[in-house]
Amino acid sequence: MAALLPPQRHEEKEPVSLPEKKRKKRKRTKHDPELERLDSLPWNSSLPNEEEDDAFSLFIGSGDLDGGFLSLEEINESEYGLDGPGVKKKISNKKKKKQKLEDFTEGSGEDVEADPAEGMAEEKNAKAKKKKKKSKKNKTKAVQQEDEPATVIDNKDNEEEEMPNEDETYPEFYEWNELRLHPLLMKSISRIGFKEPTPIQRACIPAAAHQGKDVIGAAETGSGKTLAFGLPIFQRLLEEREKAANMLEEKGEEAAKYAPKGVLRALIITPTRELALQVTDHLKEFGKDINVRVVPIVGGMSAEKQERLLKTRPEIIVGTPGRLWELISGGEKHLVELHSLSFFVLDEADRMVEAGHFCELQSIIEMLPMTKGATEGQSQNTQNCVTVSSLSRKKRQTFVFSATLSLSADFRRKLKRGSLKSKQSTEGLNSIEILSERAGMKPNAAIVDLTNASILAKNLEESFIECREEDKDAYLYYILSIHGERRTIVFCTSIAALRHISSILRILGINVSTLHAQMQQRARLKAIDRFRANEHGILVATDVAARGLDIPGVRTVVHYQLPHSAEVYVHRSGRTARASSDGCSIALISPNDSAKFASLCKSFSKESIKRFPLESSYMPEVMKRLSVARQIDKISRKDSQERANKSWLERSAESLELVVENYDSEEERVKNFKQKKACSVHLKKLQQELGGLISRPLRPKTFSHRYPTAAGVTHLIQHQFEELAKQKGDDNLVPGENKRRKMVVIGQDCVEPLQALRSAGREVLMDGKDMSQKRRNVENLRRKRKEEKKRLRDQRRKQKKQFQGRQ
Ligand SMILES: Nc1ncnc2c1ncn2[C@@H]1O[C@H](COP(=O)(O)OP(=O)(O)OP(=O)(O)O)[C@@H](O)[C@H]1O
After folding, report:
1. The whole model's pTM is what?
2. How many Å lie between the centroid of ligand 1 and the Cα of residue 116?
3. Which domain of life is it from (predicted)?
4. Pick the CATH number of 456-654+681-696+747-787 from 3.30.70.980, 3.40.50.150, 3.40.50.300, 3.30.10.20
5. CA of 574, closest atom in ligand 1
6. pLDDT, tens digit, for every residue of 724-734?
């Protein structure tokens, strides 16, 4: 356990004898049961089998240091470039240190052109602060010169003063203390209110922030991976600033080299635009207290906005591979300064090696200057280099994170042997391993794999509904109407299916947002915002929303169509049951899906899965509504298709300066007109019919009209009832009559899917063979029915012919 403990910052200033209190504390942490639990966690069993002696299966402090964490004695700050040359260890009190840091931070903001959106307020603040600080600084300087000449720490009292006691400052957040984060980060953590680090944060932060290691991290969805790489980045930037601030007096201008300002320090690449924006927001939340600029660079962003953001010369950029490569290859000034990069992060790395991202990502990686040990000649952009300190040039850390990361035994063995130097030796490695290798992943990288055998989040309840393909709409409508509580995401594999169900649901009066890759970026963001804003929102999305989206309060994920891979299933389901909350997933399984579903369960080592409880007495009403909705949908589609075709024809003709003439005869035109009119009358009729149906709560067949007990009343309908009751009360407010007029909804069986599942879900054994057999049986049955129908049809025809012959 010692590996997680080495107090790097303490180490620097630590006196020969530690105070008794501290020693006890360290001893205590050494035997932290949580860390021991992590230590004993196995590698994901679904991944290739491990050799017993593999040190990379969550290596947290054993005697074998190869590829694992360094022990306390082995950490040499100078090796990681964390102490600038000639730094004298000084005694300074807490205030003085903070003051210096602030001075430096302020300075760093001065020559950075601010983003107009946020910049004005910042500029104002900075000016006011600057005035204040100037007078303060002068005072402090005077006091320092008189009272506190620079001395080497050798005395307990001073040491106690130097390190702020976080226990006292943030007593509720003591769980973070062992990670020894910078006080400003602790301030952010306390402001945001994260009581304790998540396991992945606990495991990654010491390795990444204090031991300067590269990290490959895998942990379940919603487990806080963003901060697992975000906090080490902030920690290092702050430490560098602090050191530069300490040197400011001695070295003057030169000190600034140790915390270069206005240069790119971290490049975080994510597979989707939404994820990049989300990671940016998450990090910005922490960057607030420490004046670190984090900006997103994603496809779909306007050139002006992009330019404005890059002009602020942010330290951290979060982007998608396509747009980043476009800018890097185009020689964008801020982005080509990749030599100053201290962190290169691949978030959701396994998704990025899929088609569509790989080439751009590979090109970006090829532009990265070689890290320690590589020949200078291999760096392609050295002529663009500005002078940066050895501190930031010395090493770049690479972080690779995902919930579904699989590394081959061969790659882990390679890391262990430290044989990752050759760029050519990529034989037998998968794409993610090749990219990690090319990105300069160091041989002693820490691999932290906290995924369990099933990889799925532990608070997730999975379930399924078996139904015919054509009944999926009905079951989806059933779930959303009867159990439509809290936020729900419905996943489709194809955009066509997404369009179909979102249209049907809208016709049925269910307000849904949609999200898919063919939408304009602005519309995509709007859809997410709308979904976020509605506590009971419904988002119908393709797999573009499967990864990383972090929207609190998503309680249900419906797999309308099964995804193509087990990984995507994990990520889709991971949109619920995030952090410490719980949620459920419901897969709609048609006979065609059953074999796929069985193999999915097999790959997660699932022996049984719950069948989602259904109340069949609701289905006749559901089917009735759906049938009308489908007819409306068909007519509207036909109509809009015709209009689209017509306008396309007109637009094309207009662009060619042609006149479109109508050659239809008068008779045809009248006929068309009549047809259209009949169609629109029919449509209106259907709409009226559906309006009548959906104006009432969805009721089971046995529902009594005389006693509305609210069976099947969703929150929406109950809300409508309440509104209605309120309205009626307001309309004719006669004193004394209130009681009689008020409509009361008695009882409520509208429960969340998770609640329904927990109280009534039935476990079904998942037997792959059984599922396949079932599928075969259904297919046989269908074939027989078809044959029977054909036989009957032929028979009828024959009889008809015979009858006609007799006549
Ligand atoms: N220490 C913590 N305590 C409580 N909540 C946390 C903590 N760290 C992060 N979170 C919250 O947990 C949620 C999930 O975090 P994050 O998005 O980083 O997860 P993730 O592991 O990257 O998920 P995914 O694999 O789906 O991308 C976020 O809302 C985040 O604010």
Report:
1. 0.67
2. 30
3. Eukaryota
4. 3.40.50.300
5. 26
6. 666 555 555 44
